[in-house]
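@channel anyone free to eyeball this complex?
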Amino acid sequence: MRELATGQANGKIILMGEHAVVYGEPAIALPFSAAQVTATIQSAPEDWLDSSYFSGPLAKAPTTLNNLKELLHLLRHDFATGPVICRIASTIPAERGMGSSAAVAVAVTRAFLAWQQVEETPTGLLHYVNTSEKIAHGNPSGIDGAATSGTEPILFERQQPFIPFPLNLDGCLIVADTGVKGKTRDTVADVAHLMSVAPTATKQIITRLGDLTREAKTAISANQSYRLGNLMNEAQALLQQLSVSNGTLDHLVQVALNNGALGAKLTGGGRGGCMIALASDTQSAAIIANQLTAAGAQETWLQALGCRPAVSAWL
Ligand code: MEV
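replying in thread with the prediction:
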C-alpha cells in the first residue's frame, strides 16, 4: 500500500445521442480536457472528505454526496482497508452536463486503486464508477464514466465495448455554460415517464435520435461539417420534444445559430448545464463565443474537432 496516491479524470461533452443512449441507441462523446478532477487517497484516523463542497467526516457529508460516500464505502469494503482521507480538486463545473459526478468517481477510484497498488482495468474501474453513477443519476447509460475515464472521442452503446472514434472534422466546437445547474437525474426520470405514458411517440423520437447519431458518425468520417450542423439542429428539436431543453438553452442555441453556427444543441442531461455549437473555423467560433457571453453564457470554451485540447475562448 502506498502512503498517498493520486487519480485523475477529465470532463466530457456529448456531441450527439444524450438520453437516447439510455435506451440503447449510440452516442458520440469527447473527453473535455479543459476541465479536470484530481483525487488523492491516504490513510487517516477516520473516513474524511476534503472537497470544495464539503470538508469533514465522511459520515457527515450531505446527502447530495451519497454517490461519493457509497463509492468510498464500497472500495473500503472490497479492499478491506482502514479509514481514508479523500481529497478532491475539480475544475469541472458541477451539474453542467460535463460529467462531473462520473469524473469524480473515476478520479477517486483511480486514486484508491493506485493507493492499493492494484492495476486498473477498464471493467474494474467502470464497475465502481457506474455503481456511484446509479446513485447520482438513477439509470445511467455508462457514457459519462466511459468518456471521463478516456482520452479519445468514443462511439458508445450501452452494454457494448465502446469504440474510440477519431474526430477529423474541419470545424470547431463552442461549449457554453448556461450557469444554471442541469438536472440529469430529473430529465432522465422525465424521459422514462414519457416512455411509460406515450411509448409510441417517445420511442420514435429516441430511434430518430439514434439515427441522427449514426448519420453524424458518417458526416464526421466524411468531414462534412455542414451536414453535422444540420443533424445537431434536428437533435435539439427532438430533445426539446423530450422536454429536456429549457428557455435558457433554447435562447443560447438561437444566438449561436444567428451568429453563424452550423448547428447547435444542448449537451448532456439538459434543462440547464451546457450547450454546444459547431462553427466552420476558429475565427467564426470566437465570434459565436463572444455573442454567447453577451447573451448570458457564464463561460465558454473552444474545442477543435481534430482531437486537439480545448482552449479558453479568449485566448
Ligand atoms: C448525461 O451526461 C447523459 C444522459 O444520456 C444520461 C446517461 O446517458 O446516463 C442524459
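from a first look: The two ends are 43 Å apart (CA to CA).
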